[in-house]
């Protein structure tokens, strides 16, 4: 009987232990089910980036701690996020006013040493101090390009984008943004006539070769330049008013100096036989630096980015060479990138999310957030147009995109106006850019 009672007691103990364990497991499962995923876990489990590579870093500069980190030290092609590094370089070496041109003079001549200023005769800038300076002199004007130590196209740029306005050639003395504006306008033969025709012209006017081709069926006005020469093929469209910007071949200083006489009313001659430095050297100041940095960041202007990097190189090293100034900047960074151009056009660029965190934090410390807020796009502005619509003033960030690449890095103000720095880099993405941007937007908004 005692043995039977003991067995019965042990059976009951086992039963209660089983029930207790079962209740404990159910409690854990229920608790886990009710636990909310972190914004990062939610992002990484989303199918949007299922077949892509992604790196994420979110940093709290007040506590110097990373709130979220995923593959944050791995390298990614960053596209136009490179402009953040260019922006930092410009802020560091160019002060607040661009040096438009350096010069020295004697009784009979003025000798120009160009700086790479991209705003000279650029359509966005009505005030033209360098042009006014050159216009008023009665002396002969000479210019050198011996401080130019780079190439017109950057390393790794796609050669077949040469005709697109986002891949403009670089040089020491840009004019008109190194592009021609081709215009098609519908005109009437006279005020009484109902007959209409099209007027097609370039701004500035050129004497370069032009060919006309019939409409291929699209009905769109199109201008295509030969890859290796300033020969332009024009297809008339049906649009009443249409403008297109087409880069022209620079040929060093030759094309710029060929275009200037009609506008300036005088010639500028090349002379590389004078010294670049002189005790009596002067500088004609150009535009406020931030008036160029802002469009560079807001519309992701590649031409401004490339030329500003060359300007910084000239200011720091005395020559225009992107590699020289990049090497100078990379030495300052703990999280060292592979950095080859100013715009991010090259796929040779490789940055980690933590590299951008480091650069953005340096900008915050050395420049201050007030200036950042004037230069970086905020919600529903610039390349963030249509995104973060309700978050204007809460996010300041730079986008980046090219085939297979989506990037966003910058600053955000979270709960209690807590400043955070973030970087999200996506590579090998094969979906719609819009879907990727919306998914990253959801992640960022969860931090606000």
SSE map:
Layout: H1 2-34, H2 39-45, E1 53-60, E2 65-70, H3 82-93, E3 97-105, E4 109-114, H4 129-136, E5 140-143, E6 179-188, E7 196-203, E8 210-213, E9 222-225, E10 232-235, E11 241-247, H5 254-264, E12 269-270, E13 282-288, H6 290-298, H7 302-317, H8 322-330, H9 353-366, H10 369-375, E14 395-402, E15 405-413, E16 419-427, H11 433-445
Parallel strand pairs: 4-5, 5-12, 8-10
Antiparallel strand pairs: 1-2, 1-16, 3-4, 3-13, 6-7, 6-11, 9-10, 14-15, 15-16
Helix pairs in contact: 2-11, 3-7, 3-9, 6-7, 7-8
Give the biggest beta sheet. Answer: 5 strands, antiparallel
Shape: globular
DSSP E strands, number: 16
User: Percent of residues in helical segments?
Assistant: 25-40%
Structural class: alpha+beta
Instruction: Return the string of H and E elements.
Output: HHEEHEEHEEEEEEEHEEHHHHHEEEH
Extract low-pLDDT stretches: 21-34
Instruction: Give the averaged pLDDT, no decimals.
Output: 92
Tell me the quaternary state: single chain
Query: Which band does the percent of strand residues land in?
Result: 15-25%
Radius of gyration (Å): 29 Å
The helix tally amounts to 11
- Please give the order of strands in the largest beta sheet: 2-1-16-15-14
Euclidean distance between termini CA atoms? 70 Å
